[in-house]
Amino acid sequence: MIGIVDYRAGNLTSVARALNYLEEPCRISDDPGVLEQASHIIFPGVGAAGEAMANLKKSRLDQWIREWVQQGKPIMGICLGTQVIFEYSEENDTQCLGIIPGAVKRFPQNIRQNGEQLKIPHMGWNHVTFQKDHPVFRGLPEGSEFYFVHSYYPSPDDDKWIIGLTDYGQLFCSVVAHRNLVATQFHPEKSGRPGLQILINFCRWEGQDAE
Amino acid sequence: MLSKRIIPCLDVHDGKLTKGIKFKGNIDIGDPVDAAREYYEQGADEIVFYDITASSDGRDIMIDVVRRVAETIFIPFSVGGGIRTVEDMRRVIMAGAEKISINSEAVKNPPLISEGASAFGSQCIVLGMDVKKVEPNSKVPSGYEVVIHGGRVYTGIDALWWAKEGENLGAGEICLNSIDADGTQEGYELELTPLISTNVRIPVIASGGAGKPEHLVDVLTQGKADAALIASLVHYRYYTISQIKTYLHEHDVKTRMTW
Fold this sequence. Notes:
The complex is a heterodimer of chains A (211) and B (259). With 211 residues, chain A is of the alpha/beta class. Chain A has six helices and 16 strands. Chain A is globular and about 50 Å long. The model of chain B has no long low-confidence stretch (mean pLDDT 93).
């Protein structure tokens, strides 16, 4: 069973629908007792970092997620879930889970590409340039794009965490991975076939490192 | 670099497409779920459903359509038409839509934009705008006026002002429909679209007037649009979405080519 962490951060049913389509049993829950029975955890979310962390603390899921990661079991962050895995977010000046050393930063106001002012949020389909081979990101067709919607981006302290980079006026880290953890800034559940491929790969992954 | 999005728009009435859509083998498809699936397979980047149902029974049918679409296609889609309250939004979002589009209701009740944005996030709220060209005047200095009820009612609101106001209230995106260009198949409005798109920081979807793929090239380059809405161009099988995308790609418009 795949556990989907519910911390009142937007509509989590789209991840569950994608897993249903892939015939992967899943449960959405905010109860550590239920989530504990899962083989894999997906930590999704849309919304603001401040409220997300407040909700995680209230339901004591913050500590539970840290422990899950330490136990070496597979976990996947998506979008806001990815961002709160870091130490700190500029959004609402928020102390986050601190699982990955680094910060989440806002795209600069004057971000430009080819002389054109870029829109914020970064919304729509964009490429990911994978920096390393990783079991969760195998089998993706050349030229695959993924669906993003965000105004803040993760910035790990150490490049060793970076699995994928995306260009939006600047290169930013769009996929991180380390040991039993993978996390994407984009939404695999809304990225068509390549996104579904990532979800299948994750469900079949036992959490071993990329190396 | 971000791709420009191609978005087919499906009009739904009582759970059925208002005009049948012809696909391979000239088969007429009246089911919005089948049509959405077909466009998803052809490489649509997003899908817009516009519900023109008036009755409350029809609304329940639409919720069921949204649920069935969400179970079979895995790209974002939005639903517009008749959404008057945050509770209406919640039903559509919980059924699986990524975004909600509000148009006349936002003009009549602007706080609906901010209420929706604070409940679900700005990325969920698309401000739909129907716009007509008028003589510039003191109330409408840009020469583009917001109209409602399918263009029948003039509001006295300046389109440029309303776009900025919508952004300030928390809209995450604007779907900009030119009533003058709509249905002409002679191309998108290429003065209105860049006027709005360069004066807001949120993405703008251009709508109305697409008759051939070069019209999309025009609106996505000189028109400065972030996405283009299409309807009859694909509904009547003049082109498939993949043919349009290939044309865009050949004309140096960055678009998603792998799906």
